[in-house]
Amino acid sequence: MGFPPETAARLLSEGRDHRCPGGEETCVKVVAIAELPSRFGEFQVVAFWNEQSEQDHAAFVHGDVFDRERVLVRLHSECLTGDAIGSLRCDCRDQLLASLERIAQSDAGIVLYLRQEGRGIGFANKIRAYQLQDQGLDTVEANEALGFRADEREYGIAAHMLGSMHVRSIEIMTNNPAKIDDLQRHGVQIEGRIPLVIPPQPVDAAYLETKRRKLGHLLDMEQLDGSSDPSPGASR
């Protein structure tokens, strides 16, 4: 359940011929599309390739989103420790699963999965940041101690992916206003925001508070009550 065969063939053809002017770093192209039945429902997976960074990115598509408006979208950055291993230092896995469940129940939607581990600093540096967090720094302080900004991600690639699939406008599932601002800066028309708040665990309550206080995430303080555990995590 996704793009009809003729639409998938068109996207692949456009991908083969696609070249961004000036070799833009955010330039990606569709290189493969396949059916992907999942425990959440029927999806298609669309593989994108960035020739500049030599990285691939993925879109998990439910329903036919081609030339659609108000497509439900979750923009999710890779988190190996959370998504694959189920780490409790962050709410990444829970947000990903909740997004897939909701999109599978919708008429049409997309999870954009970007290879921006550790808020864009990479896996090894993310673990270095965890070491600093174990010593008492919060997630923002740890990134900055390593010489990075609090969040190194940018979403031009996501905007390019949506354009490649001919999505006309979206409703975004996020608590992070920076995602909205950056997508709009890259020309994405956003029709609305849907909160995606996961109840805190004792281990990640302080990390959620750091996201709210230092990164401006739109979290209801009442949802963060009930835990004073200082253990930090890695923000989304």
Order of helices and strands: HEEEEHHEHHHHEHEH
Q: Helix fraction?
A: 25-40%
Alpha carbon gap, first and last residue: 29 Å
Return the CATH architecture.
Answer: 3-Layer(aba) Sandwich
Q: Major β-sheet, in short?
A: 7 strands, mixed
Q: Please, how many helices?
A: 9
Strand order of the largest sheet: 1-2-3-5-4-6-7
CATH superfamily: GTP cyclohydrolase II
- The SS-based structural class is alpha/beta
- Unreliable stretches, pLDDT < 50, 5 or more residues? 226-236
In terms of DSSP E residues, the strand content is 15-25%
Find the CATH topology: Rossmann fold
The total beta strand count reads 7
CATH level 1 name: Alpha Beta
Shape: globular
Domain unit count: 1
Q: Tell me, rounded to a whole number, the average pLDDT.
A: 87
Q: Round the Cα radius of gyration to an integer and report it.
A: 18 Å
Structural features, described:
- The protein is an alpha/beta fold and 236 residues long.
- The chain has one domain: Rossmann fold (3-Layer(aba) Sandwich).
- The protein is built from nine helices and seven strands; from the N terminus they run H-E-E-E-E-H-H-E-H-H-H-H-E-H-E-H.
- Strands 1-2-3-5-4-6-7 form a seven-stranded mixed β-sheet, sandwiched between helices.
- Helix 5 packs across helix 6.
- The longest helix is centred in the N-terminal third of the chain and has 13 residues.
- The radius of gyration is 18 Å and the shape is globular.
- The two termini are 29 Å apart.
